[in-house]
Amino acid sequence: MEAIIERVGGVDVGQATVVATLLVGAAHERAKKETRTFRIVTRELLEMREWFIAKGVTHVAMEGTGVYWRPVYSRLEDAFEMILGNAQHIKHVPGRKTDVKDSEWLADLARHGLIAKSFVPPKPPGAGGGPRQAGGSVPPPPAPAPTRECPCQIIRRDKPQARLPCAMPS
Question: For 66-99, b where at least 16 C-beta lie within 10 A, e where not — what string?
Answer without folding.
Answer: eebbeebbebbeeebebbbbeeeebeeeeebeeb
